[in-house]
Amino acid sequence: MPRPVTLYKSHGTGQFTPEQFKALGKNVIFEPGVLVFHPENISLGTNIYIGHGTTLKAYHKNEMIIGDNTWIGQGCFFHSAGGIVIGQNVGIGPHVKIITSFHKEEGIEVPILFSEIEFAPVVIEDDCDIGIGAIILPGVRIGRGSQIGAGAVVTKDVAPYAVSAGVPARTLRIREKLPES
């Protein structure tokens, strides 16, 4: 039996004030055009840069947590319905997308748009670098010190210190400590 269609409603303007955040550290830079939804579920550490036109779309449940010394490029889109945790010292290139929910497949009787939504968190551990235009899908953990190539689509966990790229992303090599000179 088909589900009743829910009437759409606005998610608001995305305008925000610092007092609305769950936590907001010192020296957090919001460039012009940044939109923030549900700031009461967003915790931002200290010394964070958020580039022009980025959207931080928290949700009425779960949290978005962004650690100290993180740099987020312009035009990014983070949707934390399932929860997002970004560690410290993380670089995120322009136009990166992080998604934490998806429509469950319920067969052809139910339009995909109206199927149940499933939630799965994304975790990006400390010291990672996410290349321009990468897409990180629900339920992924990116291990400490990993590098994700430009345009990669990350569909599964990435080991610590891995260099991963491609569609879907695959590990090309593991970063190693350089010998002392």
Can you walk through the features of this model?
It is globular and about 65 Å long. The chain has strands spanning 23-24, 28-30, 35-37, 42-44, 48-50, 55-57, 64-66, 71-72, 77-79, 84-86, 91-92, 97-99, 101-103, 117-119, 122-124, 129-130, 135-136, 141-142, 147-148, 153-154, 162-165, 170-174. The relative contact order is 0.12. The protein is an all-beta fold. The protein has no helices and 22 strands. The model has no long low-confidence stretch (mean pLDDT 95). The protein has an 8-stranded mixed sheet with strand order 2-5-8-11-16-19-21-22, with no helix packed on it. The chain has a 6-stranded parallel sheet with strand order 1-4-7-10-15-18, with no helix packed on it. A 6-stranded parallel sheet has the order 3-6-9-12-17-20, with no helix packed on it. The protein has a single domain (20-174), classed as UDP N-Acetylglucosamine Acyltransferase, domain 1 (3 Solenoid), CATH 2.160.10.10.
Concise structural overview:
It contains no helices and 22 strands.
Query: Distance between termini?
Result: 69 Å
As for the CATH topology, it is: UDP N-Acetylglucosamine Acyltransferase, domain 1
Order of helices and strands: EEEEEEEEEEEEEEEEEEEEEE
Mind telling me the CATH class?
Answer: Mainly Beta
- What sort of overall outline do the alpha carbons produce when their principal axes are compared? globular
Largest sheet: 8 strands, mixed
Strand residue percentage: 25-35%
Count of DSSP helices?
0
Structural class: mainly beta
Indicate the radius of gyration in whole angstroms. Answer: 17 Å
Determine the mean pLDDT: 95
Low-confidence runs = none
CATH architecture verdict: 3 Solenoid
Number of domains: 1
Strand numbers in spatial order across the main sheet: 2-5-8-11-16-19-21-22
Number of DSSP-assigned strands = 22
